[in-house]
Amino acid sequence: MGNLKKDMKEFYSSSKPYLNQLKRHNLSVYGKYLDKIRRHISPGSKILDIGSGAGQVANFLADKGYDVTGIDISPLFIKESKKGKAQFKVMDSTSLKFKDNEFDAVISAETIEHVLEPWKMLDEAARVIKQKGILILRYPNNQNKLKQFKTRLSKKPLFEITLPNLSKDVFGEDEDLCHKASTADISLYLKKKGFKILESKPFFWRAGQIVARKQ
Predict the structure, then answer these.
(1) 165: which of 16, 21, 46, 175 fits an S-S bond (Cβ 3.0–4.6 Å)?
(2) Helix orientation angle between 56-63 and 31-40, rounded to the nearest 10 degrees
(3) Which residues have C-beta within 8 Å of that of residue 124, sequence separation ≥ 6?
(4) How far apart are CA 175 and CA 141, in angstroms?
(5) Strand pairing category for 46-50 and 103-109
(6) Domain extent for 146
(7) Is residue 25 within 8 Å of 54, Cβ to Cβ?
(8) Structural domain total, the chain
């Protein structure tokens, strides 16, 4: 797992075609996600954007009066992001360099499926969110629905890891995913971490989205 994690970091840190793919994501791609954020989180709130990519969401929210810090494992992506108003740092989502209870909210779109140890990302998000703080996640709900049903029955998160394609021809079209993210896994794990699920799409939907509050 250690070698794969290193390979993934090198891939995201060096792939300019992948960055160009991210830059083509205009704000309309994040429309409903941004609506959720602005409905659940008040302007002026201190927000951490995990896996901020090319920075579109973080910079948009900064323009709207939020105090936003974006983090990404890729120096290449962070350099591009810094053209906007939000703050950005190169950082691993599974080892955040922030204090406990530092943020009013944590948001993350299309990131957890790129994380080799997704439970650690959720642990770190839970650690840095204040009590009553909000967590909003968006992700492709990729895991087999039968497996998700079994997870719901057993109440044991599976966190299914798979081998990503890190070839030079991968441009951000989901071939590079290493985690078959699932609504069943994530929602169950968050409940175990003391979160209350405020909103969630059904586990059988292709697109996954969860809004949760830290209790």
Answers:
(1) 175
(2) 40
(3) 93, 94, 95, 96
(4) 14
(5) parallel
(6) 2-214
(7) yes
(8) 1
CB 153 within 8 Å of CB 192:
no
Place of tokens 């090198």: 10
Residue 61 token pair: 């929210």
* DSSP state string for 48-91: EEET-TTSHHHHHHHHTT-EEEEEES-HHHHHHHTTSSSEEEE-
Asked if 111 contacts 140 with a C-beta cutoff of 8 angstroms, the reply is no
pLDDT in tens, 54-99: 999 999 999 999 999 999 999 999 999 999 999 999 999 999 999 9
Measured in degrees and rounded to the nearest 5, phi and psi for residue 63 equal -65, -25
pTM: 0.96
List Cα–Cα distances, 112 to 3, 94, 109, 153, 154, in angstroms: 19, 10, 8, 23, 22
Check which CATH number belongs to the domain holding 166 and give it.
Answer: 3.40.50.150
Backbone φ and ψ for 195, nearest 5 degrees, come out as -95, 150
The answer to whether 100 touches 127, Cβ cutoff 8 Å, is yes
Structure tokens, 185:
């896994």
Crossing angle of helices 145-154 and 183-192, in 10° steps, is: 20
Read off the pLDDT of residues 141-151 as tens digits, 9 standing for 90 and up. Answer: 999 999 999 99
Dist CA 78 CA 54 (whole Å): 7
Residue 126 token pair: 């839970």
